[in-house]
Amino acid sequence: MSKDYDVIILGSGPSGFSCAMQTAKFDKKALIVESNEEYLGGAWINAGTVPSKALRETATNIYKYNAQFGDADEKKPYEQFRMRDVLKYKDRVLASENSEIKDNLIKNEVDTALGFGRIIDPHTVEIKSEDGTVKTCTADYILVSTGARSTQPEEFHVDHSRVLDNRSILDIHYIPKRLVIVGTNVQAIEFATIFSALGTRVTILNGQDDYLVFLDREVKNEFAGILEDFRINIFNRTRVLQVGENPLRNCTEVKFEEKDTGKMHVVETEQVLYFGERIPNSANIGLEDVGIETDEKGFVNVDQNYRTNVPSIFAAGDVIGYPGLASASFSQGRIASCNMFEASSLEIESVIPYGIYSIPEIASIGLTEAEARQQDHDVTIGRAYYRNLTKANIAKNQRGMFKLVFDTKTLRLLGVHIVGEGACDLIHIGQAVIRFQGSVRYFLDTVHNYPTYSEAYRIAAFNGINRVYKSGVKYKNILENR
Length: 482
Ligand SMILES: Cc1cc2nc3c(=O)[nH]c(=O)nc-3n(C[C@H](O)[C@H](O)[C@H](O)COP(=O)(O)OP(=O)(O)OC[C@H]3O[C@@H](n4cnc5c(N)ncnc54)[C@H](O)[C@@H]3O)c2cc1C
Known about the structure:
By secondary structure, this protein is of the alpha/beta class.
């Protein structure tokens, strides 16, 4: 019996959207079911990637303005700028991104249905809209791309007034003088630097031993120094006990204890911003009814083609877990579509870049120095510092570093780690060299525009090559690859 669609996609985030786009290119018919009746685009457009980056853009501009002209005017940004204007800019960006998504879906003849989707058999989805109407649609394939959400704290309540989350912080109507952030995931660190750049005094309460532990140690230390310059206070190994109002001092109080000693602290603040653990939106969508396997946290299990154990059902994006990025979700959704319609069995390159949009940015690809040593590589490191770059001096972005990890004998590039302005873009130069199994010699043999931040690749390569030379290899032999 013929079906209504070739694929029904649950969720319009990056994985669902890219699956729909790729499906349309195969001249197949896709339906996107989206439970958010107001917006398409998921966390990507509405609550995560784009709005936080739009906010960051304004904060960075204000920060740069103050870095260049701050001497002339000693006012804090919150005395000069209004949150209303900062948010207006973000809203304009969101409106344009939202209409871009709609235009793309219309142009590619992708149908959309607003309502909560639930799988009732391997080829059928039930769609329940907010007004209670229910309809069912059938398809050859189903993609589960329902994303993830944050866990809620046990000790206090996210009321979206005193205690905010990544969504409600985007509607705050003033720049707080003080902000306590609970949690230290990537987004927590991004928001900490965004608000610091706006002049807010930020305190971070971290329940773990450390933060951003996956970073190369040296890059992490450089970033820790930047957080100190921002006067961001981080308390590791803490437990928040209570968040409440202090009416006498007209502020919010956060009580927390040090896990090791039990020592109590109280911080006064205007707002609290909470980041929990990411958990999948995989409950009540019919997975158990059709026997789809998940892990113990509910993340959907898939093979390398993004197929679940039920052959007609695929899953992609945050609902399958790691890495939980919009960047990876775009590729996963597209590849799921390719595998449904047998274009070819494509796989994502296993070495993927990571970007943290703090101020300044952090990005990395490939092996850290510690990982390369663990894997028994004969490792040499090349470093460059932003303070030595003409471009960084002109732009007053002197904090940060580049670190190249490469093999001493072959000079093959194994990893790149950057903290500093433009890191999330700059990393792709290193990515291309790693992808094509190139060596740091590439950076010596190519001409880079000047003044640029990418010049740091050349400086770091020379720095590393010098170290190889000092270890006893003749310079001529290094340059001539002998
Ligand atoms: C604050 C923040 C900042 C971020 N910044 C970045 C960044 O800079 N770079 C980056 O790469 N990633 C970033 N991310 C991560 C990124 O947003 C996610 O990885 C990405 O959006 C996940 O995409 P997805 O396709 O899984 O779906 P999502 O974007 O999570 O969307 C899922 C959609 O499914 C819908 N849905 C759920 N259940 C149903 C159902 N039963 N029926 C119908 N629809 C349903 C939801 O309403 C939602 O619209 C950030 C995340 C956050 C929270």
